[in-house]
């Protein structure tokens, strides 16, 4: 019973982090119709911003917003400088359909190379604000820890804030309109380009939080070529696909489904399936319900 | 007639082989080894050009398919002591089977979905090596092709032997691919890439044609994987990192995704970049952090710049510019000499 609870809670925590990453991919997809494979690089850079803030200001709670703002500014910069050029230059010819994918991959390479030029290839350490030693219930120690609880609560709070932003504010309305029908949104006076940049900025901030939490949730060590960020990228993508790639609610559900099922597979099937399990889940989803849990039919052909 | 035309394409490849033979006798060992690497990259890049440039499917997981080929070759070499040629054939077949399975899933997906799925494969597959004892875990397996036969002479070094095997494989697979691309199948791929619905209306089974492209591409990638592990001497998960898949894609984009013969350009660039980076880093006298990361930065920057400014590759771009100029000239002629129009 304790073990079941344990597995569930760990799954929900890592699922929440996946969900944040999925949200940032969905935000970018909705605003530019691009799957941003550089998202993990952007999260990496933001996490290094957070690391610098921790070193200089000694507080995780200042570092988190620093990482978020840094991530948001960087993402906006990328959208303005880079994506607009890409749309202008590579929208015809045999590689038009694959150009954005290749370009974001190249961007990922550039970001990682620059990060390791600045901070070096060695591990640095980010210490979370709370202990990662498990709770003890009736003599049994859980893997679920105060730190994980904190991560979980922060993720929930952030999601609530995001949903308020999208459902209750004018900005959220224009974000939704620009994603749904850019031309009509433009006709009704929404500055679509600006809104697009804002979508990227939000995605950058969400990715920054995912990067920070992923790092402290694992073991706190951070390095430019860390496998954690590749996993974060892939699981964020898988969560987004499970959720149908269009919907933010779907991304959250996708993240939780992925996190919990991976956690159960690791606990009850084999602990060495950590890398292969998400891939198998992705294949199952693509075969059974390719439009995602929430996605509309035929979205796959976009 | 057609048969004649196809077989005549064999000649440039034989000529290329002869040129390479004399070239490899003249340069030092390091260059011979780099030549072998270039040949390996040519094979790998050609497999991506076939898949992405002609059939229009993206794969970020070709590193994983290369790993499948390499492991298959090494396992058959160790367990059954197969002759080396058969090992390469096994590598092609096993990787092609893997590619067919992946292709069956891929035919249902498009663009970003396929990219993400193959990316997930590239990350997850190498870790399987730790699951099975026969694959040798983290330190991997030895893959020894043996030294060159004595009949080739005493001064025929190991690296030269590697170069010969790799160059022969590269020439053969380029020739094969060239012919496949000119055949019905190549036409079907280009048709489905251009407009899938139109291709279906014209009677092409686009799903089957996509799976076939994936299968052939995977087989060639498997060959490249076996060749790569031949030059390294071992097969291990760390020889097939995510970055390998990325740099292959870079090589293919630099080559021009839809010009098979451009594979050479991409391969040379991939091998040359670390050297260029070294020279640049020495010139500016920078710290170690910068020196070690400069090659990665250059590769990625080249990738981005190519996609942004020469999206269809240097060769294609050149043709396009020429065609545009010719068209303009024609237009001008028609405008200035209206009286000529009746004659032509």
Q: What is shown here, in short?
A:
The complex is a heterodimer of chains A (302) and B (344). By secondary structure, chain A is mainly α. Chain A has helices at 2-32, 39-57, 60-89, 99-119, 146-168, 170-180, 182-187, 192-218, 227-242, 248-268, 276-288; strands at 124-125, 136-137, 140-141, 221-222.
Describe this structure in words.
The complex is a heterodimer of chains A (302) and B (344). The model of chain A is unreliable at 297-302 (pLDDT under 50). The longest helix of chain A has 31 residues, at 2-32. Chain A is globular, with a radius of gyration of 19 Å. Chain A has eleven helices and four strands. Chain A is mainly alpha-helical. Chain A has helices at 2-32, 39-57, 60-89, 99-119, 146-168, 170-180, 182-187, 192-218, 227-242, 248-268, 276-288, and strands at 124-125, 136-137, 140-141, 221-222. In chain A, the strands form two sheets. Chain A has a two-stranded antiparallel sheet. With 344 residues, chain B is mainly α. Chain B has one domain. Chain B has 14 helices and two strands, in the order ααααααβααααβαααα. Chain B has helices spanning 2-8, 10-26, 29-54, 62-80, 84-106, 111-124, 158-182, 184-194, 196-201, 206-232, 242-255, 263-284, 288-309, 313-336; strands spanning 141-142, 234-235. In chain B, strands 1-2 form a two-stranded antiparallel sheet. In chain B, helix 4 runs antiparallel to helix 5 and helix 7 runs antiparallel to helix 10 (206-232). Chain B is globular and about 70 Å long. Residues 1-8 and 339-344 of chain B have low confidence and may be disordered. The interface between A and B is large, with 55 and 52 residues.
């Amino acid at each position: 019973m304790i073990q079941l609870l344990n597995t569930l809670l760990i799954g929900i925590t890592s699922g929440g982090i996946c969900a944040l990453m999925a949200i940032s991919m969905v935000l970018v997809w909705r605003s530019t119709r691009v799957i941003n494979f550089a998202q993990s690089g952007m999260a990496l850079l933001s996490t290094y911003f957070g690391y610098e803030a921790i070193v200089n200001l000694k507080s995780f709670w200042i570092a988190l917003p620093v990482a978020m703002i840094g991530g948001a500014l960087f993402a906006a910069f990328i959208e303005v400088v880079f994506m607009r050029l890409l749309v202008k230059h590579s929208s015809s010819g045999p590689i038009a359909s694959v150009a954005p994918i290749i370009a974001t991959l190249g961007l990922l390479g550039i970001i990682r190379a620059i990060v390791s030029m600045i901070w070096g290839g060695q591990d640095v350490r980010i210490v979370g604000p709370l202990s990662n030693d498990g709770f003890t219930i009736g003599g049994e120690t859980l893997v679920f820890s105060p730190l994980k609880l904190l991560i979980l609560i922060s993720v929930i709070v952030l999601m609530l804030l995001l949903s308020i932003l999208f459902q209750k504010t004018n900005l959220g309305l224009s974000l939704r309109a620009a994603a749904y029908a850019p031309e009509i949104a433009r006709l009704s006076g929404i500055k679509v380009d600006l809104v697009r940049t804002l979508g990227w900025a939000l995605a950058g901030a969400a990715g920054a939080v995912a990067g920070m939490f992923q790092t402290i949730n694992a073991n706190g060590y951070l390095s430019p070529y860390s496998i954690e960020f590749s996993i974060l990228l892939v699981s964020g993508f898988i969560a987004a696909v499970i959720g149908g790639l269009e919907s933010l609610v779907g991304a959250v559900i996708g993240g939780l489904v992925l996190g919990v099922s991976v956690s159960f597979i690791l606990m009850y099937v084999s602990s060495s399936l950590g890398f292969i399990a998400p891939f198998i889940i992705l294949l199952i989803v693509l075969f059974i319900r390719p439009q995602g849990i929430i996605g509309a039919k035929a979205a796959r052909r976009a | 007639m057609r048969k004649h035309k196809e077989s005549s394409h064999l000649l440039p490849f034989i000529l290329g082989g002869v040129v390479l033979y004399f070239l490899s006798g003249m340069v030092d060992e390091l260059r011979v080894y780099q030549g072998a690497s270039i040949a390996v990259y040519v094979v790998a890049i050609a497999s991506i050009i076939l898949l992405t440039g002609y059939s229009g499917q993206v794969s970020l997981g070709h590193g994983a398919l290369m790993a499948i080929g390499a492991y298959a070759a090494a396992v058959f070499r160790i367990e059954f002591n197969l002759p080396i040629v058969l090992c390469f054939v096994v590598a092609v077949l096993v990787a092609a089977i893997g590619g067919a399975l992946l292709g069956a899933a891929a035919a249902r997906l498009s663009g970003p979905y396929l990219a993400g799925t193959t990316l997930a494969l590239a990350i997850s597959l190498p870790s399987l090596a730790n699951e099975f004892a026969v694959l040798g875990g983290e330190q991997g397996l030895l893959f020894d092709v043996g030294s060159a036969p004595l009949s080739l002479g005493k001064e025929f070094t190991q690296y030269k032997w590697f170069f010969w095997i790799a160059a022969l494989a590269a020439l053969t697979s380029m020739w094969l691919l060239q012919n496949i691309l000119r055949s019905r199948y190549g036409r079907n791929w280009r048709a489905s890439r251009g407009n899938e619905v139109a291709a279906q209306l014209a009677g092409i089974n686009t799903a089957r044609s996509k799976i076939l492209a994936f299968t052939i591409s995977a087989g060639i990638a498997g060959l490249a994987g076996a060749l790569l592990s031949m030059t390294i001497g071992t097969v291990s998960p760390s020889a097939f990192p995510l970055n390998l898949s990325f740099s292959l894609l870079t090589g293919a984009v630099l080559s021009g995704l839809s010009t098979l013969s451009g594979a050479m350009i991409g391969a040379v660039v991939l091998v040359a970049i670390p050297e260029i980076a070294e020279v640049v880093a020495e010139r500016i006298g920078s710290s170690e952090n910068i020196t070690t990361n400069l090659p990665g930065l250059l590769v990625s920057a080249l990738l981005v710049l190519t996609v942004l400014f020469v999206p269809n590759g240097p060769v294609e771009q050149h043709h396009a510019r020429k065609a545009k100029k010719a068209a303009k000239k024609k237009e001008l002629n028609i405008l200035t000499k209206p009286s000529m129009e009746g004659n032509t």
